[in-house]
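Example (one chain per record):
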Amino acid sequence: TKGAPDGLLRKCNRRQESKNISLMTGEMRARILRVNDEMAADAHRVIATAYKKLPVGDYSKERLEEGLIFTGLVGMIDPPRPEVYGAVIRCRTAGVKPVIITGDHKLTAIAIAKELNIYSDGEMVLTGEDLDKMSESQLEKVAGNVSVYARVSPKHKLMIVRALKKLGNVVAMTGDGVNDAPALKQADIGVAMGKVGTEVAKDAASMILVDDNFATIVKAVSNGRSIYSNIKNSIKFLLSGNTAGIL
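Predicted structure:
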């Protein structure tokens, strides 16, 4: 089995090193979590792996993930696309605040957010565990100062969108999975992924990104503002001209 290191370690009572299996000590748990934090801080997505041998026919769900043997950590890196860096800067310039909402480890999310200039020192970072302890009214008070949400579930995404909307923001939300559909529907502008997005996510969204590229959203905002500005200028011109004609 595999999963988040902090969660999977709680289910392991032994560890395997080479071919030797020994008891999992508190010192070893602390060491594994320390290595996990180091990898996460280096922008790696980290999963833990473990196993157990089962007697033939003993496949009861309750007993499958108990008494596991820890085997190791796997770190993967999913670097941001090169065009995202410039897109984030254009977002800031245009008065749009980008926020990262992810299921990744808190340190991984912070490392990526810092790399993209989305997070700066002094801003808040909330995890799904933090959100579980907060009411929506409590979240509203701090949501404006949060740039990174980590280890979140679909219900947390919905909670975040509601809090940001109540603060008077126009909220755009991106997503690709079935579980993202409620948040996409709740947002002012739901943005689904065209390539990897599910049909449910696409149906719930207001806009579909054909190329799954964040930079395209920024272009869409820019084009939308240009169109809106042109419409306003046309109305002003027509109103002033027609008013003069009537007089």
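Caption: The chain is about 45% helix and 20% strand.
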